[in-house]
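Incident log, support desk, overnight shift.

02:14 A customer reports that sequence design results differ from what the structure should imply. Their input is reproduced verbatim below. On-call engineer (initials T.W.) acknowledged and began investigating.
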């Protein structure tokens, strides 16, 4: 039976009391080990063609790895590692402009949803308004339909920094400078890269002269067939979490302590919970996360032919990792897994506003990366 956590918010002390992992930095041996079968052969796929997009895109290259990034939303469209597409992003310009599924969205200045698209800040109510379909979810921030500009010198073929400023948006009137940096790495075990790596850094700086609410997150989708030949149902996750977030039908966490229950799943040797995806329509967050000894939070997605390692450096006291199996998407249902590192839980503007405060001139950051190991 699940047990409810007694407090409304997950405390930093409880997160710090999470079980210590038995390994120094990660669980690659524990996760991969003898569970992976012999490699299967598959035809190599070329990187996504940039000509499918009429808007501005940039391609990063590092050895046998490449990534395609769009100016629209600063989203990753493709991450191809030695002929294997790992990121399941938008397929063409029409797909990108539709925004369906919020694929690989840079989530700022909030992540996931705000209940009824309304919140109160410093005694004043703000209304973000309905979406084009009439829903009031305030889904995944303001970046997805925003065009970013490149601000680095373009000299590094493996990295890219983009920039935009929010402001004048109904329901969020404050200017916030959002900078997004991507970097890719080829395999380099001697430098700690057991697989290919994609890194993302989001920095949000408050340009207003008042304190504003800011939260950050990332919404990447990963092809199931990058790490398995048996479909998404054959995958499982290993998450460094003690608590599952319980939400209503609109994916808003329940009130008070009802929103938290003990994650009484089976555990790996390193103490991570094991979440099998077979037969489960997942759209769930986990919190009360713990770090490895290097200070990073690591989540794993394991298949018969490889695994993914997602890292995040978000504050353990209130951050979450969210998983989504895509069952409610209009297309490509259960073809990929979204695994989302978030600075705070859904509806944080209303639930924990004091945590979301960012003072004038201050910057909030999210550093995350994913390793693809096959």
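02:41 Re-run completed on a clean worker. Output:
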């Amino acid at each position: 039976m699940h047990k409810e956590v007694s407090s409304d918010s997950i405390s930093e002390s409880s997160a710090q009391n999470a079980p210590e992992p038995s390994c120094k930095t990660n669980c690659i041996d524990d996760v991969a080990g003898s569970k992976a079968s012999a490699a299967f052969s598959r035809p190599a796929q070329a990187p996504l063609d940039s000509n499918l997009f009429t808007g501005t895109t940039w391609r990063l290259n590092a050895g046998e790895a490449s990534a395609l990034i769009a100016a629209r939303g600063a989203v990753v469209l493709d991450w191809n590692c030695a002929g294997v597409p790992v990121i399941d992003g938008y397929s063409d310009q029409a797909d990108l402009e539709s925004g369906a599924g919020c694929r690989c969205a840079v989530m700022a200045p909030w992540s996931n949803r705000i209940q009824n698209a309304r919140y109160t800040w410093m005694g004043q109510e703000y209304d973000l308004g309905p979406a084009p379909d009439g829903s009031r979810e305030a889904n995944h921030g303001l970046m997805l339909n925003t065009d970013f500009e490149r601000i680095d010198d373009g000299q590094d073929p493996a990295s890219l920094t983009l920039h935009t400023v929010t402001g004048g948006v109904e329901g969020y009137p404050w200017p916030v400078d959002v900078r997004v940096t991507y970097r890719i790495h080829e395999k380099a075990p001697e430098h700690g890269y057991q697989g290919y790596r994609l890194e993302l850094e989001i920095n949000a700086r408050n340009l207003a002269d008042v304190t504003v609410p800011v939260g950050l997150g990332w919404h990447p989708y990963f092809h199931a067939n990058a790490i398995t030949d048996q479909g998404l149902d054959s995958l499982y996750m290993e998450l460094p979490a003690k608590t599952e977030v319980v939400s209503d039908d609109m994916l808003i966490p329940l009130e008070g302590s009802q929103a938290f229950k003990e994650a009484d799943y089976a555990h790996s040797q390193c103490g991570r919970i094991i979440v099998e995806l077979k037969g489960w329509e997942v759209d769930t967050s986990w919190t009360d996360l713990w770090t490895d000894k290097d200070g990073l939070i690591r989540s794993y997605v394991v298949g018969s032919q490889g695994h993914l390692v997602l890292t995040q450096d978000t504050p353990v006291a209130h951050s979450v990792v969210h998983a989504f199996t895509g069952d409610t998407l209009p297309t490509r249902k259960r073809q990929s897994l979204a695994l989302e590192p978030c600075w705070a839980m859904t509806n944080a503007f209303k639930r924990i506003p004091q945590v979301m405060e960012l003072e004038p001139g201050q910057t909030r950051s999210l550093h995350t990366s994913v390793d693809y190991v096959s």
